[in-house]
Write a structure and sequence with these properties.
This protein has 6 helices and 7 strands, in the order αββααβββαββαα. With 211 residues, it is of the alpha+beta class. A hairpin with a 3-residue loop joins β3 and β4. It is 37% helix and 18% strand. α1 packs across α4 and α4 packs across α6. A 7-stranded antiparallel beta sheet has the order 2-1-6-7-5-4-3, with helices on both faces. It has one domain: HIT-like (HIT family, subunit A), CATH 3.30.428.10.
């Protein structure tokens, strides 16, 4: 398990790269990811992450922006952190972040890491808060490993495009790779989750994690 100091350095490096990309004229969006395990598309055996600068804003991000705009209760993520703080879907939290198995989970043990401070852009987050989010990610992965072993996963950072000023709240998705996408999912776009998020969160929360 990475130390607190290493986590702080990793998150600081991510922020620095995003700032650089934001000032690069041909980059409209930067996608930061971690692919772990062959089933998750990892191209290297050792732990690693990737940062990809794109000349367009991906449809997934545009759709999330539209969802934020449609929501009438303020910020979706802020509202979710408040609503989920006392539910069975809560996995863990610290001063700066909350981890839940969202009620809309599309796959088993899917987790959402939500910064408590409202910032559209990851780059606007204070160093202490950013480290806190990194620690929540580390601890969420530790609970996942304690529950299911060293399984494949995708870790996906979603932040507002650098030049967009709409409503957004950056966050992180954690997708364990336990199932395959079959014909029904391909044909309809409707995902089947065989484990209720409440059950997944209970298992993750109660897992014995080594310090």
């Amino acid at each position: 398990m990475f130390s607190d100091q290493v986590i702080a350095e990793m998150m600081s490096a991510l922020k620095s790269r995003l700032v650089t990309h934001a000032h690069t004229s041909n980059i409209r969006y930067t996608q930061a990811i971690v692919n772990h395990g062959r089933e998750a598309g990892a191209s290297l055996a050792h732990p690693h992450g990737q940062i990809l600068g794109l000349p367009f804003v991906p449809g997934e991000i545009l759709e999330e922006e539209r969802a934020f705009e449609r929501f009438k209760g303020g910020c979706i993520v802020c509202t979710t952190t408040e609503a989920e703080s006392q539910t069975e879907r809560l996995v863990l939290e610290n001063e700066h972040a909350m981890v839940v198995c969202p009620f809309w989970s599309s796959s088993p043990y899917e987790m959402l890491i939500m910064p408590k401070a409202h910032n559209q852009h990851l780059t606007d987050t204070s160093d202490d808060a950013l480290t806190g989010v990194g620690l929540a990610i580390r601890d969420a992965l530790a609970h996942l490993v304690a529950t299911l072993g060293d399984i494949a996963f995708n870790l996906v950072f979603h932040t507002a495009p650098s030049h967009h000023a709409g409503i957004f709240h950056w966050h992180v998705h954690l997708f364990p790779k336990l199932t395959t996408t079959a014909g029904f999912e391909r044909g309809t776009g409707v995902m089947i989750n065989i484990i209720a998020p409440e059950d997944a969160a209970t298992q993750l929360r109660s897992a014995s994690v080594q310090a």
